[in-house]
Amino acid sequence: MELFTEGDPIADTKAPAGPVEKRWETRRFEAKLVNPANRRKMTVIVVGTGLAGGSAAATLAEQGYHVKSYCYQDSPRRAHSIAAQGGINAAKNYRNDGDSVHRLFYDTVKGGDFRSRESNVHRLAEVSVNIIDQCVAQGVPFAREYGGLLDTRSFGGAQVQRTFYARGQTGQQLLLGAYQALERQIGLGTVEMNTRHEMLELVLIDGKARGIVVRDMVTGEISTEMADAVVLASGGYGNVFYLSTNAKGCNVTATWRAHRKGAYFANPCYTQIHPTCIPVSGDHQSKLTLMSESLRNDGRVWVPKTKGDDRSPKDIPEDERDYYLERIYPSFGNLVPRDIASRAAKNVCDEGRGVGPTKLGVYLDFADAIGRLGRKAIEAKYGNLFEMYERITGEDPYEVPMRIYPAVHYTMGGLWVDYDLQSNIPGLFVIGEANFSDHGANRLGASALMQGLADGYFVLPTTIANYLASGPLEKVDASHPAAVEARTDVEDRVQRLLGVNGDRTVDSFHRELGQIMWEHCGMERSEAGLRKAIDEIRALREAFWQRVKVSGTGEELNQSLEKAGRVADFFELAELMCIDALHREESCGGHFRAEHQTPDGEAQRDDDRFAYVAAWEFTADGEPSLLHKEDLKFEYVHPTQRSYK
Amino acid sequence: MNLTLRIWRQKGPEDKGRMVTYPVDDVSPDMSFLEMLDVLNERLILSGEDPVAFDHDCREGICGMCGLMINGDAHGPQRGTTACQLHMRQFSDGETIDIEPWRASAFPVVKDLVVNRSAFDKIIAAGGYVTAPTGSAPEAHSTPVAKANADAAFESAACIGCGACVAACPNGSGMLFTAAKLTQLSLLPQGQPERYTRVIGMVDAHDEAGFGGCTNAGECTPACPKGIPLNTIGRLNRDYLTATAKGANNTPGS
Q1: Count of the separate structural domains present in chain A
Q2: A559 shares contact with chain B (CB less than 8 Å)
Q3: Could you report the per-residue pLDDT of B123-166, keeping only the tens digit for each?
Q4: Rounded CA gap, A98 and B44, in Å?
Q5: How far, in Å, CA of A246 to CA of A54, rounded?
Q6: Would the pTM of this model clear 0.95, i.e. be above it?
Q7: Looking at residue A380, which CATH number applies to its domain?
Q8: Residue A449 lies in a domain
Q9: Exposure winner among A275, A329, A616, B28, fewest CB in 10 A?
Q10: How far is B246 from chain A (nearest CA, A)?
Q11: Is A338 a catalytic residue?
Q12: What is the dihedral of CA A459, A260, A511, A500, to 10 degrees?
């Protein structure tokens, strides 16, 4: 059977015409407005309380809408945006180093390896400056210079210093800013907050998104919540790999359920592997920990020149070390973009030159920087990261070089959205990492926080008004047959998971799925590997539904049941990721196909055949998905081979 | 390593709860504490028993979701470390480890080691913010902030809201949590206009939520994985006193 069939191309993304720098202004002016008196009669559901969802819920409530917010954690403050370390980009040009909105736009399109939409990226660069203003006004304690002005640094391969930061905890501070704005609205009664609730289904009425089915994770109660529009801000799907830097609870269920109801899933194979994570220590490993990329500003990456060199790093003399990033990429050196640094680490480990007990690691060495700047200076910059490394590994990075290895960190793919961040289902909006929109095939460092907040504070609140203003929508409640059906589906599914009563735990399946994905759909992909993976995933998924053991009942706090539902959805997503990776017969950004590389081993794009967004439509279980192509046009940033040499 | 765990099991809020003993063998010193509990849970699930419920999410010490009393210490024996970042090399072979939930009247037990900490959110909702609706912000550089103040504000803002301070306090007080947010915002120019209404609002919400009062026992700061300083409570008290002297309604000139 064919793995997929091709459907109609996507003709219109709804971006206004005209010069790219005028499009957002045009859209804002043309967007319809909702009368303030009518806003409180309109309900918007927001799923997820990270940077995108938290900022969107707070802003919509400030504007006067009635908001219902949902998160699976015990507090909206715990969404995984909190773990972002490095910083947030903004085209403020405070350094007078040649930065501008146009340069941030250009860098982002190029960094995404020419697989993102110019209109969206330009808007992102434009609103980046407003984000910093907003966060400072909220009391976010950004790092400052002695003169009291904001400090910035260069980050992730950028040649300008446009990254604002709050020590190594920028995500935490930005998220707490959004969370506090959200709590203010909760206190005012404009946001109805539902913690420890998980979205398990989308409710469509007359083709429009009108509600969701949620499970109360404490009591097990399943209920249907209705609204005028639904916003998904449920994050990325990196946990399909089991081991990733995502929080344990991160999952694809909200977006996957919407996909099964008709929302296109775009570019699922675009995943970002972060080069600087602490290597796996054993089979017990439950997650991977990122060491901020900022470490590459001062650390030098190396491995021994000879295979199987088992000496301790301090016994390996300088001329027997290979500082391979500096050697291969003399102009960017240790600061090459993430995809390039990750693949280079994989290559040296594949050659047998990896270090550490598992040989899946490379050194990140601070000896030079400590010699040049002094231990104190390094402590001031990275002290908290060094402590964290020591807590986890038991090794002191001031004395012994850190060991790092790439790990799955971010997913650029997600639900397809138009310029308004609306999916192909009317009334279903998708923001933050959950959508596919701005990063193309590779995200630049410090751009995830920027996109989450751009979507939530500034873009969505404008574009969703245009949709709501086209109403009023027909009044519906949870007794509508479509809502009842969605709820029954959820109840049946819960019972089905509990009813298998097999002999393997959910985690054991998840771990095995992760190994298949890491092996065949990770840093390097090939046709043979992907075909093998698809077969293995299908077989494992079948075994899951026959052998999984979920303890307890549905009417209580049941973490094993929660995990089972998420892993069931990961199986389906994993297959689509492999199909997407298989059909994209080129290499671009985070998607590297072994068959498509330049003579010196760099990603080889094929713009003639693949300069499009792959938007997948679900058809039916066991039936091939339908591929819709959205052609990408580059009017301002002309595609070139990325070179960091 | 072979260990004996004694874990608090409680089916729900109504259940009385009890300590139950579980031997766990072949523990690697490179495992995190939560990974060790994962191993136990896998075994319990396969043998048809109810796994131990515990809260966790990021497993890198920043989300604040995990929180266990380990041998009577909030987050266990290593200072400045959340339970998720605590590794088994901190324990010895043959050791018996007691694992309990946070115990405080403001944090009722949901199940086993899971507690309800929504009282913290209520404190923030009562004033732990700067009123700055989206779009209303002035240019970020229009108000410089002295680096020392920005750094000290950051130090307080590093609180992860885990509740270890409450669990460690003999009174079950949430003063360190409350003071951390108040200190952050009162050190910044953006936080000044609401400074005194904020302190009254948050302290009132703290008391209403059932937290105990602070008697300067000083158990909170050593238990805090982020080392929030005790002197933040002094700042809270000073602002609270000023606020009550002014009258809580933010007398002009404040």
Answers
A1: 1
A2: yes
A3: 999 999 999 999 999 999 999 999 999 999 999 999 999 999 99
A4: 60
A5: 18
A6: yes
A7: 3.90.700.10
A8: no
A9: B28
A10: 24
A11: yes
A12: 140
